[in-house]
Predict the structure.
Amino acid sequence: MAAVQRLIDVSTVIVCCGSGGVGKTTTAAVLGLEAAMHGRKVVVVTIDPARRLADALGLEDGLAAEPQRIDLDSAQESGGELWAMMLDTEATFDGLVRRHAADPEQVDRILTNRLYRNMAGAMSGTQEYMAAETLQALHGDDRFDLVVVDTPPSRNALDFLEAPGVLARFLDHGAFKLLMLPTKSGLKVLGSAAQPILKAIGRVVGSDVLADAVAFFQAFAGMETGFRDRADEVVALIRAAETSFVVVATPRHDTIDEAVWFAQQLVEQGVGVGAAIVNRTQPAFGAGTAADATAAARAAVGNDALVALWTNVAELRTLCERERDVIAPLADVVSDDVIATLPLLDRDVHDLAGLQTIAGHLFDPAE
């Protein structure tokens, strides 16, 4: 499909979005594999902690928090490479602290703080921001010229897009500056003005952590500029022209509704949809409509075998036509020429051969 082919040829970042269970992880792996076969050095990173990406790549031992190279003999001729990794939220957060801290003592104060340890793994939005940070780091890694990101279900994926901007705004917020005050007078102000923030933190970690919160934000002093600048860089990358978004769905009302919602959000944010891929669709079974097949069945009266065959074709074409009606609202948001459909396969995809089968349907449908 031309639109998808163009994405893997010109993009430096591809973000795959969609609701759960639509084949989004497999799609990300297929895009990465095809790009590698065309000579690109690709890393596919999953934000989802489940084993779906490892399973799709046929990796029995799972994925690590660092990129690992996938053996692709057929890609060596083109010079392409395929790498894969899984997001480690806490390790990424720790790495940010080490990068922006003034000295080892500041690193130790933050990494041993109880609030930080809870926040690094559990606080709402942390995973999404660290995913964006990982994307930025991989984009700047000379080993790769394309990063393919497999995001969580779509509304969480929107958090992934917004998280860097949210952090930047928080660092500029007056409440954050109050939390940074080390004096006793600052603590008095903190008790009233920042109480909603502290209550929110308390709900996340499950205890009253006022003392830990104060200690953490004081230890954080001086690092906010580095975090803010990094967040701004991530926002710029997400909105860059070379970053493309692929919305993935299946021909069901709920997943198409989710895809439509997400596509609308991307359009409203000025990002747009590079491609929309609808997995597990019914094939058309030749040219013609269900009505044509029904007419052929009637014309074949007297030949029971032929009547049965045409009746079966009519039923299958009816399913295909109904699915097209379900997909239609997505075409109202994105243009028809960026929508690709992939057929329902007779087996699950759990290795590179399965990914290559899907790639053949997506990029070489005639074959």
The radius of gyration is 25 Å. The longest strand covers residues 146-153. The longest helix spans residues 304-333. Residues 44 and 93 are 20 Å apart (CA to CA).
